[in-house]
Design goal:
The protein starts with a helix and ends with a helix. Helices cover about 60% and strands about 5% of the residues. A two-stranded antiparallel ribbon has the order 1-2. α1 packs across α3. The longest helix is centred in the first third of the chain and has 28 residues. The protein has 2 domains: about 80 residues, no CATH class; about 35 residues, no CATH class. By secondary structure, the chain is mainly α.
Length: about 140
């Protein structure tokens, strides 16, 4: 690939990233305060009808009875499902992460904070330390 072709490609990728970010911000405004499942139901048809996917919508069965769902038999089903999942996650991420409203302050007792710091230090030695720590705490509560 020549330098000119590389530059053109990089610029196209950057433009696409900015366009995606701007689009997600518009969708966040549109769906502000809405639950993930509401956003998913609102967007599923739009994603399915994109020319890259063209996944037909079919009547859901089982727990999805009475709703329209992606046709899981379609060749592009997985790609379409993943695209929908990513878009919805990006839309609801700001609200679910607490970025739009500050989290309620909780006073943590010194003994609990010390234990948490020790747990974090122990888990840091392993891959996936955060997941390991949260799973360990969940299992401790389950006992």
């Amino acid at each position: 690939m020549s330098k000119a072709n590389t530059q053109t490609t990089v610029h196209a990728v950057i433009n696409a990233a900015f366009a995606y970010g701007e689009g997600i911000e518009q969708l966040r405004k549109t769906f502000k305060g809405k639950a993930r499942d509401v956003v998913t139901k609102a967007l599923i048809g739009d994603v399915a009808s994109h020319p890259k996917y063209q996944v037909p919508m079919v009547q859901g069965t089982g727990r999805f009875e009475g709703t329209m769902v992606l046709d899981s038999e379609h060749a592009k089903y997985q790609a379409c499902r993943k695209a929908l999942q990513r878009i919805v996650s990006d839309i609801v991420a700001t609200e679910s992460s607490g970025a739009t409203e500050p989290a309620e302050e909780i006073e943590i007792p010194a003994a609990i904070l010390a234990a948490a710091e020790k747990l974090a230090k122990l888990c840091a030695e392993y891959e996936g330390a955060r997941k390991l720590a949260s799973t360990a705490v969940a299992q401790a509560f389950a006992k």
